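User: quick one, sequence for these tokens?
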């Protein structure tokens, strides 16, 4: 196949979309290129197309050589990857704490072993905030590509010899699309990371490579259908989906793969898009796209860590400049010479890669043997445990997110006096309710009360409420039905409602991370005012249900939310050894009170209008006169920006235990 510069231009668009997605740029209140991760799907289709062309051409001309094929892949992939892994590990020793270093070591090993997609499948949701601080999360796609290269030549040549290539491809792609539609919303992580459910994207490129070239025609309609610019525009449009187009990431792969395939098939003909994508500056970005992809995530992660988990406009610009510079240098002095057999012999290539991997394996061995302590000696065990325990609370699915449980016979938490047949209180809400489980459990045990907890991330168990998060929104409705059923069944004397209320109203302080939602099937997207009114409506309606008439309902105001990521603050604190630094980087009380004032007024007004409803404000528990501290020198009160750790949960013990005792005395006197 002759060189097609527009394909390099397409690569440039794909890598640009991925980088902008990871930059998390907000524009007019929405995420710029919110589906930019689809750039990886574009890469998969292009890879399938180009590799298939190479194999088919070589097989037809002089017979395909497995040895030459794999040597080309080694030259193309491993030298740069090995350098990026070593560089990332060296910087990680300075930027990551003990627990993170251990996780990073496993990620390094899985990247070397070409199975990082399986590692992240087990450990990390790609769309969680945690990925912003994971330097190697992007290697999942490289591992899938490597796995594809290992087995694909054998399959393709077998199908060619049996003359069933087109039939197999069509049937496989159709069945894969059906499986994506039916199952990807229920198993998003598996569909995202698994090579079995990504293979059809590569094979879509293979199908394009195996088809005869499109014939010319005079029909205006047919010429319009064959216009590659149309498919490029449609592809780019899906990088920034319209607000009403809410699809799961798995479902969005279908249009991405379809339009990429159509562009590859028709893109060789003269068109405006071909002229633009073939321009040297655009094509050049495609030439360095592999370097751009590998370098961008580590650079962004370490820049975020320097900013305590945040990216400013200036830091984003600097990070992009560093990424481009590293990519140009890598392409010029690593990619080009290592891909040219005349410049770099096979022995030199393999020796270089082995040396880099040996350094990586050596560092990983030390980290895992020492538990990360060798490179992070200043971190106290108590502080490390407060983060680890916080993770158990805020990130565990033992008693939260019941749809993810392997054992679906019990979809809620029980604690306290488990021998009691009656339920003394129920806690309901989102993951913030679950973060407070330790303090509720301690109080229930001490007072010999039986408590239940119903909690699901990003979900308010209120009548008619449904978060805008694909199939998980449907699960929220199911979770609400379950919670309300149990409320009717047990009719507990006390009900606590706990949530990150501003998550559904304003998101974070900077307006990001806003969870849109609908009530009664009508989406609420227009404004802060409409979202506030909608929240008030579903709370009031739920409180009026008969099964809550005899319950005392306590709505807990949102616990102060931080602006900086606690883990990153404490890393710098260990270097500075100054507790004032932790307090300085903690959110100010005034900033949180201003941020929370609308939601607070709304909840307080609901409590004032109801006989059996009260609001609990824990701000005096978590805040001093001017600051809401992240923690002490020995422990953190927060696991992340908004979830409290176990230590943070226990801060509320004196306040909540007094609430329970007052309620107990009140009921005894009735």
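Assistant:
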């Amino acid at each position: 196949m002759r060189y097609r510069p527009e394909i390099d231009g397409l690569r440039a668009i794909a890598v640009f979309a991925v980088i902008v997605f990871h930059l998390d740029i907000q524009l007019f209140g929405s995420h710029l290129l919110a589906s930019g991760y689809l750039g990886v799907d574009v890469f998969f289709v292009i890879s399938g197309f180009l590799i298939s062309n190479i194999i088919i051409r070589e097989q037809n001309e002089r017979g395909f050589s497995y040895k030459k094929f794999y040597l080309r892949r080694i030259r193309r992939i491993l030298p740069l990857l090995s350098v990026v892994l070593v560089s990332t590990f060296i910087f990680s020793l300075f930027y990551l704490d003990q627990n993170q270093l251990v996780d990073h070591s496993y990620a390094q090993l899985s990247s070397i072993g070409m199975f990082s997609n399986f590692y992240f499948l087990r450990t990390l949701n790609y769309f969680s905030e945690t990925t912003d601080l994971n330097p190697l999360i992007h290697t999942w796609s490289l591992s899938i590509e490597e796995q594809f290269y290992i087995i694909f030549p054998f399959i393709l040549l077998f199908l060619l010899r049996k003359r069933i290539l087109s039939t197999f491809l069509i049937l496989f792609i159709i069945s894969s699309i059906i499986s994506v539609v039916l199952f990807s919303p229920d198993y998003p992580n598996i569909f995202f990371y698994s090579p079995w459910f990504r293979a059809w994207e590569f094979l879509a490129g293979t199908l394009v490579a195996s088809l005869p070239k499109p014939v010319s025609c005079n029909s205006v309609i047919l010429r319009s259908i064959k216009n590659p610019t149309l498919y490029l525009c449609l592809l780019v449009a899906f990088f920034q989906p319209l607000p009403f187009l809410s699809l799961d990431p798995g479902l969005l792969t279908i249009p991405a793969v379809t339009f990429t395939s159509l562009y590859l098939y028709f893109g060789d003909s003269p068109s405006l898009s071909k002229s633009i994508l073939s321009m040297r500056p655009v094509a050049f970005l495609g030439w360095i796209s592999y370097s751009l992809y590998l370098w961008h995530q580590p650079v962004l992660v370490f820049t975020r860590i320097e900013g305590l988990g945040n990216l400013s406009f200036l830091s984003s610009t600097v990070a992009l400049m560093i990424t481009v510079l590293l990519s140009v240098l890598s392409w010029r002095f690593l990619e080009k010479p290592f891909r040219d057999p005349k410049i770099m012999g096979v022995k030199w290539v393999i020796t270089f890669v082995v040396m880099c991997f040996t350094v990586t394996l050596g560092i990983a061995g030390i980290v895992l043997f020492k538990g990360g302590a060798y490179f992070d000696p200043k971190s106290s065990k108590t502080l490390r445990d407060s983060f680890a325990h916080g993770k158990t609370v805020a990130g565990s699915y033992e008693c939260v997110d019941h749809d993810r449980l392997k054992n679906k016979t019990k979809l809620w938490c029980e604690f306290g006096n488990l021998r009691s047949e009656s339920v003394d209180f129920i806690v309901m809400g989102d993951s913030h309710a679950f973060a407070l489980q330790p303090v509720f459990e301690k109080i229930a045990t001490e007072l010999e009360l039986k408590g239940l907890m119903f909690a699901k991330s990003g979900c308010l168990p209120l009548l008619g409420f449904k978060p805008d998060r694909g199939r998980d929104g449907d699960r929220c409705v199911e979770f609400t039905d379950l919670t309300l059923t149990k409320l009717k069944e047990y009719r507990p004397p006390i009900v606590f409602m706990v949530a990150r209320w501003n998550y559904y109203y304003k998101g974070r302080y900077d307006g990001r991370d806003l969870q849109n939602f609908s009530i009664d099937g009508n989406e609420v997207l227009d404004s802060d005012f409409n979202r506030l009114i909608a929240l008030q409506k579903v709370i009031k309606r739920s409180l009026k249900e008969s099964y809550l008439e005899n319950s005392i309902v306590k709505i807990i105001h949102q616990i102060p939310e931080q602006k900086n990521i606690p883990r990153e603050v404490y890393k710098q604190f260990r270097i500075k050894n100054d507790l004032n630094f932790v307090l300085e980087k903690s959110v100010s009380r005034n900033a949180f009170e201003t941020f929370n004032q609308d939601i607070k007024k709304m909840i307080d007004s609901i409590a004032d209008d109801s006989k059996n409803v009260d609001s609990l404000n824990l701000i005096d528990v978590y805040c001093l006169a001017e600051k809401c501290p992240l923690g002490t020198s020995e422990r953190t009160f927060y696991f992340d920006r908004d979830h409290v750790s176990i230590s943070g949960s226990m801060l509320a013990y004196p306040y909540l235990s007094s609430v329970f005792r007052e309620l107990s005395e009140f009921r005894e006197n009735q």
